[in-house]
Amino acid sequence: MSGKASTSKPNIGLSGSDGLSHAYIHYPPLRCNVPGSSGLFYDDGNKLVLSPTVDQVFSWKVSLFDPLIDPTADSISEGPIIAIRYSLDTKVIAIQRSNHEMQFWDRETGATFSHKCRPESESILGFFWTDSQQCDIVLVKTRYG
């Protein structure tokens, strides 16, 4: 399976802010032709555009975007994807599967680990990788009651 991002002109204007989780696509619009894609996500920590399918995630570096370069592809397990980001060293893929579950995928070994919240007491609102000495990832959660 392959995927390509293409533009109608060879030069695409992408910029962003280190503090924001989005990218600005000036012109021309980015088109993604990945069969079975469940949408586009932006990984702000690594400046990647991600396009997951049922069993793979395709990624493109946006800081040095070249529409003629094929994306990187990683295998992932099936399931819903609310958010997806690579760790800052790109060794692990974190996938938010639901408001109560995170899945971590080791790219080198294929090993997975899941973290689940108790649905009756809290929900995951989002997550971010960090280069802090205290932790590698921050889960933003809410508690009820």
Automatic annotation (TrEMBL):
Domain of life: Eukaryota
GO terms for cellular component: late endosome membrane; lysosomal membrane; Mon1-Ccz1 complex
Span of domain Regulator of MON1-CCZ1 complex N-terminal: 40-142
Coiled-coil spans in chain: none
A Pfam family it matches: RMC1_N
InterPro entries, per database record: RMC1 (IPR040371), RMC1_N (IPR049040)
GO biological process, one term: regulation of autophagy
Record's protein name: Regulator of MON1-CCZ1 complex N-terminal domain-containing protein
Organism: Vigna mungo
Source species taxonomy: Eukaryota, Viridiplantae, Streptophyta, Embryophyta, Tracheophyta
